[in-house]
Every structure is written in structure tokens, then in C-alpha cells.
Amino acid sequence: MAIKVIVFDFDGTLIDSNQLKYDTFFKLFPSDQFHRNIIADVLKEFLEESRYVILWEIVRRIGHNSREKTESEDLAVKYNDIVVEDAKTCKEIPGAHKTLQVLSNKYHLYLSSTTPQEALEEIVKHRNLDGYFCKIFGYPHNKITSLREIIQRESVNHEEVLVVGDGESDKVSALETGCCFFEIDKDGVLQDVRDYL
Question: What is the largest CA-CA distance in the chain?
Fold first, then answer.
């Protein structure tokens, strides 16, 4: 069956923001080895989770038991402020804008990310990408639920949907829903998606 719908991940797929998001977790805590080790361990284990889950786990492991929830929520606000501003201006993955422009003429495009909904919409709008997508899904939506909603909304079969992403969560969501998957590798060239189609 031919592809009719394409669902893009955002960070590491359309914009080169994975490293800046990773580094920002370290900026929120003291730079001593104790904190750095905890942050690195949590990121190794929870990298594909939302910032809320990651920050809660970091705070829990540091041992601030009496104020974990409040502290992690405050840190999430600071994290968001830093990342949103940086994500507005970081480099795009080579060919991202052109790929969206070309593909939006033939396919229905969607965006699915673990970035919080409001922040995601703000970044996408600032980068003039919002006009390419039928709908944008950010946290608290999860990628599997979002794909199921897109399939129902578009009245298509799962094999008519292509998921494009660079992370394990993108691959797993495609596998769980029976959608096709195209992996953006570390070189991140979106022209390859157009060639694939």
C-alpha cells in the first residue's frame, strides 16, 4: 500500500537539538562529580522520556525526598525556558524545511514529540514550520497513542502511515501500531526520506 500520511519526530529529526537538550539537564544542577554522575546515569536510562520524568528521577536520586515533586516541577520550568529559546535558533537537520515543503504537497504531515505541547507549538511556529502539519502532538501525548489517533483521524490503514524519527521511541511506536518506519541516522539527512518515498 502507498504511504498517505507521514508522522515526523522533532528533536534530532527536523532540528539539531538533541545535544542542547541533553546539556541543559547538567546546567540545572551543581557541576560537581556527584551531581554529574547522577544526571548521566538517569539520562542513560530515561533519555527518551519526557523532561518531567527525567528531572523527577534526578531529584529523587539526589535525595531531596521531602520536596521532590515541587523541586522537579520548578526545574522543569527552568529547563523549558532554556531549551525553548535555544531550539528556536539551533540548526535544522539538513534539508528539513525543503523536505516538509515538498512532502506537504503530496502527503498529510503530522508532528509527534515528547516536548511539551505548548513549548513545541511555540518552537515550531517561531521556525515557520507550523503550516506544514495537520496537527502537532506534544507531551503529555505519547507517541503510540498519537499514532492511533492519526490513523483514526485520517481513516487510513496503519501500513499507509510512515513514522520518521531518530529515536527508539519512534521505532517502538511504529512497531506497536504496525506503521512503516524510516530512521534518521546520526548524519541526519532528510533528503533520504524523499528518495525513499
Answer: 55
